[in-house]
Amino acid sequence: MNLSFDTIPRVRLSCGALAGCSVSGNTLTFDVAPMFTQWFNGDTAFGGLAQLQLPFGIEGGTVTGTVTVTLRNRQGVSNSVSFALPNMAVASQSRRPI
Fold it and tell me: What pTM did the predictor assign?
């Protein structure tokens, strides 16, 4: 899963110590295959239905812009979907699920 951030001001991205995460420019890439494999192998009652919530923090100042999400698997690449970040002034840290 790729998350591309187009923001004003430009945000500095970091994965911290998160395994399967990498940063290149304005894009975070997460290897979500282990999570989804565990989900699909562990419970067949829900079929192909899965939901991923990814909290992220934004520190300092006011940030506006969009995040574009793209998924990729062995079959290919999904259509990208973009959403606007809420216009928010951040005093210290805010967590928003995406």
Answer: 0.73
Domain ranges of the chain: 2-43+54-97
d(CA 52, CA 32): 9
Could you give the CA distance from residue 86 to residue 11 in angstroms, rounded to a whole number?
Answer: 15
Q: Which amino acid is at 8?
A: I
**Residues 60, 79: Cα–Cα separation, whole Å:** 32
CA gap 94, 88 in Å, rounded: 9
The rounded distance, in Å, linking the Cα atoms of 48 and 2 is 20
Q: What is the pLDDT along the chain (98 residues), one digit of tens a residue?
A: 999 999 988 888 888 888 899 999 999 999 988 888 887 787 777 666 777 787 777 777 788 899 999 998 888 999 999 999 876 655 444 444 44
